[in-house]
Amino acid sequence: MQKSVRSIKLSELAKQFGLSYHGDGDTLIEGVATLSGAGPAHISFLSNPAYRDQLKSTRAAAVIVAPDELDHCSVNALISDNPYVSYARVAGMFDPRKPVSAGIQDGAHIDTSATLGQDVHIGANAVIGPGCSIADACSIGPGCVLLAGCSVGAGSTLKANVTLCEGVTIGERTIVHPGAVIGADGFGLAFDNDHWVKIPQLGTVRVGNDCEIGANTTIDRGAIGDTVLADDVRLDNLVQIAHNVEIGAHTALAAMVGISGSTRIGNYCMFAGNSGTVGHICIADRTTVHAMSVVTKSIVEPGTTWGAALPARPTKEWNRTVAYLRKLERLVKRVTKLEKQIGKD
């Protein structure tokens, strides 16, 4: 854990985030930590009852807890109806990473036709192509490449080595993490007798406001129309979004999710790690897809949960299951034969 850059009284934290506190309000908080790893200057949180035993023994200066957990807390507390959300907000107070200063660092190349707003940071060796527009208070990290005609909205941050291909639009206050590639060609191919013919990818990518795109994630440009991420979409690392996908507002995709071309995902959906979809389907609002599951048809009912992956089992047990599966076809034939013998449809 990096060293904190500040300290603040528990009572001041409570006031700033609209929470009540229990215990000594003058207690100084200098950082955040887990329940088991916290020391006497840290604040922690409890959102999962499975960690309640750690709450009883924690050395933290204070813990963010729900009202019904207060009796189990042996130290000072911030009381919140949603401890995890409150922790997310409090933790931002102790982020030791310093914001970058406005200015253009050595080695950056900015085309003369590009426009930069006020208080913009351009990192070393970044390339800003023709016709690009960088709005106020943006940070373009070292090694980033923005090809022609890209637009980055106010307050957005592109970390190191991000690539925006031609015509990509990034909204306001969006964060793009290192290595992400937005607007590369989608996988568009037509087979002509004995070889592939490349289909021109004539669209681009439009990313909304307040989005976050993880490290080494790729979002392909549209083949004809655009690939679109609405506001507050959150993509983890190593996510693949194919051409002409549309993702609704407030949807979150965990690591290694793959969304095939022309799929439409609704608002407030959640995809767990290594899940995905086939192409050309629609996913209703507030759908949840479990890890390693593939959605193969449209989901039309909002608020449903889907899963198909098999949880890991002990190897010996799994080997027995596989042995049974190999006998399944023969078993079905035997059952069918027996049903015919007794006259059952």
Work out the oligomeric state of the chains in this entry.
single chain
**Named CATH architecture of the largest domain:** 3 Solenoid
Alpha-carbon distance between the two ends? 66 Å
Q: What amount of the residues lies in strands? A: 25-35%
Can you tell me the overall shape? flat
Strand line-up of the largest beta sheet:
8-11-14-17-20-25-28-31-34-37-39
Task: Work out the helix count.
Answer: 5
Summary of the model, kept short:
This protein is of the alpha/beta class. The protein is flat and about 85 Å long.
Entry keywords:
Udp-n-acetylmuramoylalanyl-d-glutamate--2,6- Diaminopimelate Ligase, Chain: A, domain 1; UDP N-Acetylglucosamine Acyltransferase, domain 1; 345 residues; alpha/beta; eleven-stranded parallel sheet
Question: What topology does this entry show?
Answer:
Elements: E1 8-9, H1 10-16, E2 20-22, E3 28-29, E4 31-32, E5 42-45, H2 52-57, E6 62-65, E7 76-79, H3 83-91, E8 103-104, E9 109-110, E10 115-116, E11 121-122, E12 127-128, E13 133-134, E14 139-140, E15 145-146, E16 151-152, E17 157-158, E18 163-164, E19 169-170, E20 175-176, E21 181-184, E22 189-192, E23 195-198, E24 205-207, E25 212-213, E26 218-220, E27 227-229, E28 234-235, E29 240-241, E30 246-247, E31 252-253, E32 258-259, E33 264-265, E34 270-271, E35 276-277, E36 282-283, E37 288-289, E38 294-295, E39 305-306, H4 315-326, H5 328-341
Parallel strand pairs: 4-5, 5-6, 6-7, 8-11, 9-12, 10-13, 11-14, 12-15, 13-16, 14-17, 15-18, 16-19, 17-20, 18-21, 19-24, 20-25, 21-26, 24-27, 25-28, 26-29, 27-30, 28-31, 29-32, 30-33, 31-34, 32-35, 33-36, 34-37, 35-38, 37-39
Antiparallel strand pairs: 1-3, 2-7, 22-23
